[in-house]
Structure formats: structure tokens, C-alpha cells
Amino acid sequence: MRIAFLTAPEGVEQVELTEPWQAAVDAGHEPVLVSTEQGKIQAFNHLDKADTFPVQEVVGEASADSFGGLVLPGGVANPDLLRMDEKAVSFVKDFFEQGRPVAAICHAPWTLVEADVVRGRELTSWPSLRTDIGNAGGTWVDEQVKVCDHGPNKLVTSRKPDDLKAFCETYLEVFGAEAA
Fold first, then answer.
1. Rounded CA gap, 96 and 161, in Å?
2. Is 150 one of the annotated active-site residues of the chain?
3. Are strands 139-140 and 122-123 parallel, antiparallel or unpaired?
4. What is the residue-wise DSSP string for 91-156?
5. Per-domain residue ranges for the chain?
């Protein structure tokens, strides 16, 4: 299965990109780095620059229907930049409209809030997003990983890097079941 990993050109939390990416590879999937610009993205370890990664597809040219699922890594700046990009928000909405599974960790649900897809859903995130999720009609829960199947697709969310093991196991299980 091809899995889109959507990030902004900078600000993604490196471990929230690399661990779910490697989990996808280990499970036999094809992760694809999608961003708002061509070239490379700059990852961060909290506030410090980390590695760069090559963009494989650009939002606006990429299509949700060419992927089996979507992973939204966190980092504070990453989802903040994505939610300001109309094409990125539209790309995320397309996954929900097509009933494809989506996984988001840490601050990534900010992009989901902007895409107006959290209404009626239970999800988790970094705790500072609690009010934003509530104001967007969602219900925030403090759980290591939350699977919500309200609507035509499943949404997998986790709070922080410490939850990555559970996040990776759960998103791969959900994506695999949806593909079957």
C-alpha cells in the first residue's frame, strides 16, 4: 500500500516522521513524502534542526486516491504551516471524503481542525490542542492512542513521541484492515 506522509517544508518533528515511516517500510508498505514544495524538507528535534528528507510528491499534484492512507507527523511548526496551505488542507479533506484511513500524532490534528474533519470524532493530541479540537466539534481524550471510526473512514491519533510504538502498531493495523 502507498501511504502519504504529509509535511510542510520545515518544522516536522523528525522522530514522528522517521519511526512511522520505518514501520511502514518494515510492514511492506510504500511510504511517500508529500510536501507543499519541491526539494527537501527540514526536520527538527524539538527546536534544533535535524536531518533533511527529499520530497517525492507535491501537494496539488498528488492525489488522495493514489494512496491507501495518510500519516500526519507532528512538530509545532509543521501542522501550523500545513493548515495555512489551501492545497494541503484540501489534500487532507480528500482522504476523509474518500473514506481512506488517516493517522495523526502530537500537534498534527491542527491540520485536521483546519480541514473541518474532527466534528463528532474522539481523538487525542498534544494536550495544548484540546481547546482547538473541542471548538471544532471534536472530543479530546487523554489516551496513548485513539482509533475513531465515526464516519466513512478511521482516524488514528496519538499524543506525543513517547506514544510512537503504540501509534505505529495501531495505524498499521487499521490501514491494513481498511485495505483488506
1. 25
2. no
3. parallel
4. HHHHHHHTT--EEEETTTHHHHHHTT--TT-EE---GGGHHHHHHTT-EE---SEEEE--SSS-EE
5. 2-179
- C-alpha closest to that of 77 among 107, 32, 113: 107
Q: Cell 516522521: give the residue.
A: 17
Q: In this structure, are residues 123 and 141 in contact, taking their beta carbons and an 8 Å threshold?
A: yes
Q: Which CATH superfamily is domain 2-179 in?
A: Class I glutamine amidotransferase (GATase) domain (3.40.50.880)
Tens place of pLDDT per residue across the chain (180 aa): 999 999 999 999 999 999 999 999 999 999 999 999 999 999 999 999 999 999 999 999 999 999 999 999 999 999 999 999 999 999 999 999 999 999 999 999 999 999 999 999 999 999 999 999 999 999 999 999 999 988 788 999 999 999 999 999 999 999 999 877
Compute, in degrees rounded to 10, the torsion defined by CA atoms 3, 9, 106, 34. -10
The model's pTM: 0.98
| Rg, the chain, Cα only | 14
Catalytic residue of the set 29, 46, 107, 150: 107
